[in-house]
Design a protein that fits this description.
Layout (H helix, E strand, L loop, with lengths): L1 H31 L1 H4 L3 E2 L2 E2 H32 L5
Antiparallel strand pairs: 1-2
Helix pairs in contact: 1-3
Length: 83
């Protein structure tokens, strides 16, 4: 059981660290390129306004959704899912 538990936590940590790295990339990537994407305009507002107001929160929700989906698969694979 110990080897199985180690494999479970290894997969869980890998998923978590990957998604946190993606979250950091999205968060700081939008900020880093804000001046470049500010040149594009939608309905008179700069694109960075839309990315900050609607785009990034939607991406965060997609990260949460993906984490939940993948954790259900991992839990089912290792037999620790909730019924």
């Amino acid at each position: 059981m110990n080897g199985n538990a180690d494999a479970y936590w290894r997969r869980t940590r890998r998923l978590t660290f990957t998604l946190v790295a993606f979250w950091l990339l999205v968060t700081f990537g939008i900020t880093w390129f804000a001046r470049d994407i500010n040149e594009l305009s939608i309905f008179g507002f700069p694109l960075s306004f839309y990315m900050a107001a609607q785009g990034v929160p939607v991406i965060y929700l997609m990260i949460i959704w993906w984490y939940n989906r993948q954790m259900k698969k991992i839990d089912a694979e290792f037999g620790v899912e909730d019924d």
